[in-house]
Design goal:
Blueprint (H helix, E strand, L loop, with lengths): L2 E12 L3 E8 L4 E6 L19 E8 L5 E10 L2 H4 L2 H17 L8 H16 L3 H16 L9 H5 L12 H26 L1
Parallel strand pairs: 3-5
Antiparallel strand pairs: 1-2, 1-4, 2-3, 4-5
Helix pairs in contact: 2-3, 2-4, 3-4, 4-6
């Protein structure tokens, strides 16, 4: 039975008791799973193991139709430090939403996005500078997707590891400028991604 390690991006109910899970693998592949009777089975999927944000190990089977069915799942790391802080939790879901927009089911070349997401969530658990972290995540994200060049304004953000985000010093004017830049480029990237999928 195949298995892998994933960050759960989204879980949505399906039919009466199933869950559809969008997950990004450690290797950078976006997969969609069906967890049969997940809303009813407390034994197989206990403790909210299939909830978004969890880093999990999933064992699954593949039907002849190509659909993937979760057989077992266990939490490797729950990012507990995010669940007790509403603002950090809200920011976490912002990151998940962006990664979901940029990744495609079955497309394997997203390892940098998996690493960016995992490292950012770990940093967010302990940071006292969430807005700087958000800015760095968005700039790296846009750069990785090809929507941002590597000029003097963003070079430090892209080059510096996420866990060192607190070392980036910005004046209020610099922060405002970069925040406006990322908002504009994120809108452009969102339009481009949607058009690409049509």
């Amino acid at each position: 039975m195949p298995s892998g390690r994933f960050i759960n991006l989204r879980a949505k109910p399906f039919k009466d008791a199933d869950l559809i899970i969008d997950a990004l693998s450690k290797e950078g592949e976006r997969l969609v799973f069906t967890a049969k009777n997940a809303l009813m089975s407390k034994r197989r999927f206990s403790g909210g193991v299939l909830e978004p944000l969890n880093f999990v190990e999933i064992s699954y089977t593949e039907a002849k139709s190509g659909y993937l069915y979760v057989q077992e799942a266990k939490v490797i790391y729950p990012f507990s430090g995010l669940r007790d802080d509403y603002k950090k939790l809200e920011l976490s879901f912002h990151f998940l939403k962006l990664i979901s927009k940029a990744t495609y089911e079955g497309l394997p070349d997203n390892k940098r996005l998996f690493d960016l997401l995992g490292n950012t969530l770990r940093a967010l658990e302990v940071t006292d500078a969430p807005q700087t972290l958000k800015l760095q995540f968005e700039l790296k994200y846009l750069y990785y997707l090809g929507f941002l060049g590597l000029d003097d304004d963003v070079a430090e953000f892209v080059a510096k590891p996420i866990h060192l985000h607190r070392q980036i010093e910005l004046t209020p004017d610099e922060h405002t400028y970069l925040a406006q830049l990322t908002r504009r480029r994120l809108r452009e990237s969102d339009i481009s991604i949607r058009e690409e999928r049509l």
